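Journal club side-thread
Mid-discussion, someone asked how the predicted structure for our own chain would compare to the paper's figures. Pasting it here so we can look after the session.
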Amino acid sequence: MKRHITTALRLLAFTVATTYSTLALAAEQPNVIIIVADDLGWNDVGFHGGDIDTPALDQLAAQGVVLNRFYTTPICSPTRAALMTGRDPIRLGVAYGVILPWHNNGIHPDEHFLPESFKAAGYQTAMVGKWHLGHAQMTYHPNNRGFEYFYGHLHTEVGYYPPFANQGGKDFQRNGVSIDDEGYETFLLADEVSRYIRERDRARPFFVYMPFIAPHTPLDAPQALQDKYKDINTDLAPSRAEQTDSTRRIAKLTLQGSARPMYAAVVDAMDQAIGRVLATLDEQGIADNTIVLFFSDNGGAAYSVGGADNAPLRGGKGETFEGGIRVVAVMRWPQVIKPGQVMNQIMTAMDVFPTLAEATAIEARNRRIFDGRSLWPAIAEGATQPREELVYFASETPIYGHFNLTAFNDEWKLVQEIEQGQLETTVTNYLFRIQEDPNEYNNLAQAYPEVTQELAARIHDWRALYPVSGTRSELAPPPGWRAPVDWASYPIPLARLQAEPARGMSPNRQIERILDQQHGERGRLVYDCAPKWWLAGFCLEGDRQEVTD
């Protein structure tokens, strides 16, 4: 009997010690919330001098660090892929266009996602909002990419009021099960994140990813907010990019009303939703030890129906001028980051994964090498981290065969507009000293032809990494394609899929490598395999694998 009592006391002591240890870990490890806007303009927040009320975002900026040179890709899915993997979307096959409803691709299951590392480190993980990284198979579903909990939409453009649908198919779910929640979409997301935080397991830190649909088109907002902005200024400065400005000219010629008032209402609502989440953190007493990172997935949709304003930056969504890729971004962690800071060093969406891993002291469990790097020393300590290596971005959206490309670092930036016709291709180059000319007024391409040629050659080689079946700008589905009635039932279950990725038409791996080499600059058949000049254009198996286990 005595032995049983002793054993029970030992078990009790062990349980108490373990619980205390777990609670201590939870207290030490910061919570993480990543909030992503969809198409927010540079000049559309208060702390950039905009005329839309954004007190919550202004609060984050005042209490944290403004990431003044934060860059994303010019369009949606590639940015989200870069965020989740820390890797260049050109390798992933999601660079030129977004994942459209009729596509059956996503991000390769071999790629390791950001929430998977946090989950392995003991975090509870949740996603609330828009996914847009694959929907045809459960291998691409958020619940199979590290998120224990998913509430939201697989697609974009589902609308702000019920029925939330894409291509006529219902698109609103919780963990793969269709739901019928009613209300304004932006506020629904805020309420769900707040509920999740209140009902969390307090013995473990949490990682929450909150990607809004706002302020993406088609725009809609509560009537009170529409009334608030009905008289907002609609005479915006030119974007100085032909694709964007031509849509504005056409809209005026056809007497279309400005999208600006409704856009402003949508942004205001999004800021209110963010404010609700911040208030929940305060209410729970955890704001000081919660990292909140906010950024837009690309530059504002400044074309006629978009309503965004990126001034004084040039261009907008879909373009690789600064207005399309340099975005509003802030990070707050009151316990660690001094308030009122501004970081002027280049940071990209690819840098988020390694940066957060270092900030939270978790192990980044990726086996493929990051293309991003940790900027935590610059954020936390003000360390200088020069960007000598080039950053590359691309977009073919919205016009098939019209490519917007860029390569840049701290010193130079080359923007290329490539018009690909059936019999000829035209290339227009814009070269900027981007530190001296951040608003891209002075094209130095003719004054520095050798720099232009060097950067153009680097872009050429970079584009050769793209999988041949990667996304393109296909604004219409294959003839006769039909959408499902309910997207929650659309992904093919894991049990009905083979265990390994399909090989394709090549009869064996040896011939696949030969065909890959023959494709040359056209792209890759072998996944994540960069051609080696010293191997006559062949690439090595696993040459991107990390050395760690």
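Post-session note: Residues 1-26, 545-549 have pLDDT under 50 and may be disordered.
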